[in-house]
Design goal:
By secondary structure, the chain is of the alpha/beta class. About 25% of the residues lie in helices and about 25% in strands. A nine-stranded mixed β-sheet has the order 2-1-3-4-11-10-9-6-7, sandwiched between helices. A hairpin with a 2-residue loop joins strand 10 and strand 11.
Length: about 240
């Protein structure tokens, strides 16, 4: 069996991009988060140096494709533009796309995969943005009505129509959209500007205060990442 994507047919296959359009640690954090969800994914890294290549044939065997964080949008798109139509075809035919930070930018159109009913832009450039630096930071969001603090590194906001089957999961303090799920063809697209998949060591390595939780409010954003997964996987 060439890529071992058919070894457990009863489990949904999740592909996580790992390669030059991502940064070390980002794909692994997304994969760990997916493994901890209740969906029992059969998870594989995909990319130019992985055993599982990113291609139309590979995507055809998958349920979900996740695009993790990375460096700059233009550089990442140069690495991925040859897969643009394969990714659009996968989602349009019923696949699920998850985009975290740079993966959220790439769901937009300028440049990107054009999976959203609109486009993306930098949150730090919005009016009344609470974060203005390109460096690592902690950003406040309101996720389904509850305030949370998440790891952030120059992530997007989403300039999308909200009357076309779009669910807004989270907003920044200035009401810009921070996370949303929307339809594309027969599939669904989930995007988030901050990093709810981040683990405590991300905060420690960046010298950032860890957002401590309590009995009602978890400290880490993994519960929010799982909420995003559940929303994008919903029928």
């Amino acid at each position: 069996m060439k890529y071992a994507l058919q070894s457990r047919l009863s489990r949904p296959v999740a592909l996580v991009y790992r390669g030059p359009a991502s940064l070390p640690g980002c794909p692994e954090a997304v994969a760990d988060m997916l493994a901890a969800s209740h969906w029992d994914f059969d998870i594989h890294f995909t990319g130019p140096r992985e055993r599982v290549p990113l291609s139309q044939a590979t995507l055809a065997r998958a349920t979900l494709y996740a695009q993790p964080g990375g460096d700059t949008l233009d550089a990442a798109y140069r690495h991925l533009r040859d897969q643009r139509e394969a990714i659009r075809g996968f989602v349009g035919a019923g696949g699920r796309y998850l985009g975290f930070c740079l993966g959220g930018y790439l769901a937009g159109a300028t440049p990107g995969f054009a999976l959203l009913p609109g486009d993306t832009d930098r949150y730090i450039d919005t009016r009344r943005a609470t974060v203005r630096t390109e460096d690592n930071a902690v950003v406040e969001v309101v996720w389904r009505g509850r305030p949370r603090r998440l790891f952030f590194q120059d992530g997007p906001h989403f300039e999308i129509e909200t009357d076309r089957g779009t669910t807004v999961l989270a907003t920044y303090p200035n009401d810009a959209i921070a996370a949303a799920v929307t339809g594309f063809g027969a599939g669904r697209v989930g995007v988030v500007g901050p990093h709810p998949e981040a683990t405590p060591d991300w905060f420690a390595d960046a010298g950032l205060p860890f957002p401590h939780g309590n009995d009602r409010l978890p400290a880490c954003g993994r519960d929010l990442a799982h909420d995003l997964v559940n929303a994008v996987m919903a029928r």
